Amino acid sequence: MHFSCVVVILLVSSLSNALPSPHEDTAPTYTLPAAASTDVAEASKQLDQLAKFAQQQARSLLKQEHNGEKPGKGKCTLENVAIRREWGSLSPKERIAYTDAVRCFQKKQAKTPASLVPGARSRYDDWIGTHINQTVFIHYSGTFLTWHRFFTWHYEQALRNECGYTGYQPYWNWALTAVTGLEESPLLDGSDTSMGSNGEFVPGQGTVIFGGPGLPEILLPSGTGGGCVTSGPFKDMTVNLGPLALGLANGSTIGLGDGLGYNPRCLKRDLTTWINRNFANASSVARVIIKPKDIYDFQMTMQGYPGSGDLGIHGGGHYSMGGDPARDAFVSPGDPLFYLHHAMIDRVWWTWQLLDNEKRTGAEGISGTGTFLDTPPSANTTLDTVIDLGFAAGPPQTVRDLLSTTAGPFCYIYL
Ligand SMILES: [Cu+2]
């Protein structure tokens, strides 16, 4: 296969005398791929190049903002910027600190009034309730990316502020688990330093239907689990809310009204490496970062164009977890892996933004309306659209402030 390349030169010449390290001073010349390779090994090399490029761009932006050469709040600097890392690159101690904080959060008292989410029993449930109540406005809509960025960031902050966690939000790199297989990865091998195991194997499960309101159905094989998670830190976890639109292995969906009632049950998983490998491998990730030239195409490629038969990397990650609540678009934050998945979604967006940062963190970085595939029709999302996470966390912010991970209230980058 033949691939052409473009050479992108990072212009940091105006900065060169302000930079601390001679190594970082040199304006690097990057050869960035013009098309994502369909060869997975080649595509993972492309992802490495893109990751290095994004790192360099992000650090150079931080320097510019710090030196007052670029308007920014100037509060986020190279010294205080948080660095979010891949799960497997954390030390065992760091991983346990993270899962301990999540388990602590699941024991803290809910803030959501019972009149709004009667089934909420913990702070962790506040987040699920907020997601359930807003699901139809925050997927295939103009706020999909900013909403989930804000949600994941506040979750990270809550773990730090309410449960003494001192690290940052780790992410799940699907390109890695597509290679190792989910059950064999440090993320899901069921050890004490993982995010928990597969569910207990339930034989004879059928086909799972992926869909959603207004979406054509995609048939998926069931995975290698199906029952309650058997080992690791979330073995005894209780899921309190939902289901609302849970895809079952027999091809049907099940829901209990608005999904907001109290319905305690175990955390179920049905790890499906086939889905990970087909929809969220290195080639899929590289394609989402390299191909789209505008935010509309980026969002649609990431979530899958309806009718294309493609789950996108977003659905690919969600559905490869399988089980309950991961196969329920409304209740999905009920599996703690949700936040690592959405940190990776955010990282892919962050990388794509940094390829043309000014444009992609401004008005041209927004596309869509306030409803799922604009059904029913609603107003376009703009810089002034407000995102409110309800009782999970506050205060509300405008989309304007959520487009950059370093220039607004956020101060983080990805490694
Ligand atoms: Cu969501």
Automatic annotation (TrEMBL):
The keyword Calcium does not apply. Keywords: Metal-binding, Signal. Transmembrane segments: none annotated. Residues 139-156, 335-346 form the Tyrosinase copper-binding domain. One of its GO terms (molecular function) is metal ion binding. The keyword Transport does not apply. Residues 1-18 form the signal peptide. It comes from the Eukaryota. It holds the Pfam family Tyrosinase. This is Di-copper centre-containing protein. It comes from Aaosphaeria arxii CBS 175.79. The lineage of its organism: Eukaryota, Fungi, Dikarya, Ascomycota, Pezizomycotina.
